[in-house]
């Protein structure tokens, strides 16, 4: 069970969160408990901690591992969970969110996240929702596809138009590898697979990822006890920009600031980790402390 997922920047997360015995912990994207296991091994405070994930596979693993400890496990997206905790008046000493797609999601071709594996065009982190990658690829207009490729894939206008046209002219698509090959066959081959950014854009829209982050960030200081620490791991510039800007604004009001930055520049993986866990190559960690002066 513990081999499901290798957490990125684990040593760095432990350093910035600095967990101590008895502290309460909220993991908004607990996944297969990669980070959570290491933190809870230190805090041992299961009663006042909470693990969240919207992936039913991950929730099943979390329950088998921790439910007998009395630890609260929520099967929902991280914004809804943060909002629920806020409304219930729950606060924590430690809060973590790892915003990346987990290794088990990528490794299971049928989840539809990987363009290198054949599988259904799905990409839903929460399989209870209706919107899937197949609906976007096969039903959205060419103009809508161009827009999401430019906005969420950060693709050039020319390449966005080319990919959208290829999709429209060759629909329907049901398989991730077939879609990736169609995109690749109409692009200049570079070090990064031509389908990378298109798949990123579709996944972001399917899971409402950026909106989730934007709505969650202002809630985080309110979920922290004074002196509590929050850490966020991002994997691409669109995510990181939202986190960076919020942390900057929340820490720039002098004595009235809600947060104090732990690291002004993002923390990235060291070479040793990159060898053992290539997924960490794009990971960035930002962290902050809840000011004892903020209300």
Q: Could you characterize what this model shows?
A:
The chain is α/β, with parallel strands linked by helices and 295 residues long. It folds into two domains: 2-104 and 210-290, 3-Layer(aba) Sandwich (Rossmann fold), CATH 3.40.50.150; 113-206, Putative methyltransferase TM0872, insert domain (DNA polymerase, domain 1). The chain is built from 14 helices and seven strands. Strands 3-2-1-4-5-7-6 form a seven-stranded mixed beta sheet, sandwiched between helices. Strand 1, helix 2 and strand 2 (50-53) form a beta-alpha-beta unit. The mean pLDDT is 93.
Please report the number of helical segments: 14
Estimate the mean pLDDT confidence. Answer: 93
Q: Which fold name is given in CATH as the topology of the largest domain?
A: Rossmann fold
Please state the second-level CATH architecture of the largest domain. 3-Layer(aba) Sandwich
């Amino acid at each position: 069970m513990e081999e499901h997922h290798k957490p990125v920047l684990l040593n760095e997360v432990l350093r910035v969160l600095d967990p101590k015995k008895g502290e309460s912990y909220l993991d908004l994207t607990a996944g297969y408990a990669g980070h959570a296991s290491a933190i809870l091994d230190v805090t041992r405070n299961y009663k006042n901690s909470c693990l969240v994930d919207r992936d039913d596979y991950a929730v099943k693993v979390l329950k088998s591992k921790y439910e007998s400890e009395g630890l609260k496990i929520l099967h929902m997206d991280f914004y809804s969970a943060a909002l629920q905790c806020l409304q219930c008046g729950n606060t924590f000493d430690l809060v973590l969110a790892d915003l990346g797609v987990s290794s088990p999601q990528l490794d299971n071709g049928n989840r539809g996240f990987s363009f290198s594996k054949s599988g259904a065009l799905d990409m839903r982190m929460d399989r209870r929702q209706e919107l899937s990658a197949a609906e976007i690829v096969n039903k959205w207009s060419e103009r809508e596809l161009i827009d999401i490729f430019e906005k969420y894939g950060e693709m050039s206008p020319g390449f966005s138009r080319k990919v959208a046209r290829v999709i429209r002219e060759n629909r329907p698509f049901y398989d991730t590898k077939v879609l990736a090959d169609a995109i690749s066959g109409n692009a200049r081959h570079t070090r990064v697979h031509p389908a990378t950014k298109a798949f990123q854009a579709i996944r972001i829209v399917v899971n409402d990822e950026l909106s989730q982050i934007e709505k969650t960030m202002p809630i985080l200081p309110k979920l922290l006890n004074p002196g509590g620490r929050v850490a966020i791991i991002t994997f691409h510039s669109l995510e990181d920009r939202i986190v960076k800007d919020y942390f900057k604004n929340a820490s720039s009001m002098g004595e009235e600031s809600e947060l104090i930055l732990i690291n002004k520049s993002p923390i990235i993986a060291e070479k040793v980790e990159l060898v053992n866990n290539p997924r960490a190559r794009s990971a960035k960690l930002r962290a902050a402390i809840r000011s004892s002066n903020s209300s």
